[in-house]
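[job 4417] fold queue: 2 targets
>>> target A
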Amino acid sequence: WDGLTHYQTTSCAFSMRQKGKLNPVHLVDVPGHSRLRPKLEEFLPQAAAIVFVVDALEFLPNCRAASEYLYDILTNANVVKNKISVLLCCNKTDKLTAHTKEFIRKQMEKEIEKLRASRSAVSIADIANDFSIGIEGEVFSFSHCYNKVTVAEASGLTGETVQIQDFIREYIKPLAQTCINRLNLRLDSYAFGL
């Protein structure tokens, strides 16, 4: 992948070495552009895990939008029912002015707490397919989600992707004669390569 700026769903094959043999993994890249978000629904029922990529350099101006998108994913019926694990991947952390993964995690938890409070006022009929997240009476934390949410740092440009590869190894189990569907979300307009 090489700095794609077009807005379309793309996919690629990726082989993961596990226990001495290569297992194919199907990665689906759905850009975070608002016009493409409905495409995500096509892939969530088949996803084994989600890599949600945020730009650690340009995080603050995009924090609210990224948090909204992640909130929608974490409350999605397919994600909750299938207990799909999510990796919040902070890309470009090799840059000197990049925000740390802890800063990004805390800011996104604060934003999701605001969303949780405002959206809890919406009637159940309006969000029939979604689940609520968090523990009532407590400030939101990713540890309150139905599924596991992990935060990691990476740099697609320098190839520092060990944490992503470890996440894939942990959550992707080889299937006989079949390629596993994967979902890699990105919020910035730059493709993120493994």
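>>> target B
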Amino acid sequence: SSHLQKKRRAATARRQHLKSAMLQLAATEIEKEAAAKEVEKQNYLAEHCPPLSLPGSMQELQDLCRKLHAKIDSVDEERYDTEVKLQKTVKELEDLSQKLFDLRGKFKRPPLRRVRMSADAMLRALLGSKHKVCMDLRANLKQVKKEDTEKEKDLRDVGDWRKNIEEKSGMEGRKKMFEAGE
């Protein structure tokens, strides 16, 4: 028994160790991912947002402001379109996961209790008020004639053919047959 307990303890310890190792690995992966995202962001900003050099004259300054406003408008439109796409995708994802949830049947089935119920009660429960057929089980039984039972009795007397063969085989069987006058 103690050997089994040691084995169990070892398995549990191993499981715990594996779990903590996996969590550690996941944590470092998340850190790497965050760092990579930050680098990617910096690269994007460097490429798309060059450092601003302010011109000297009023006219050039106004032109720059107009350009910046136009750029802001186009970026806003882009952002809006992207947000709408994202919302649509999120909605689709939610619908699909709901479908999955429904298909998988995550809901808990209630424990079923055995209920004694007559055939009539069962049909009434299933069909409601439409149920008019009375299930008198005896009414559907076949009528048995007396001759049938006598045939069956003969068959019963003959019994299993294997048994008859065994009884009639060998010297013992021949003796019985002789005594019976067969």
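[job 4417] complete. Note on B: Helices lie at 2-48, 58-104, 119-127, 146-158, 161-168, 170-180.
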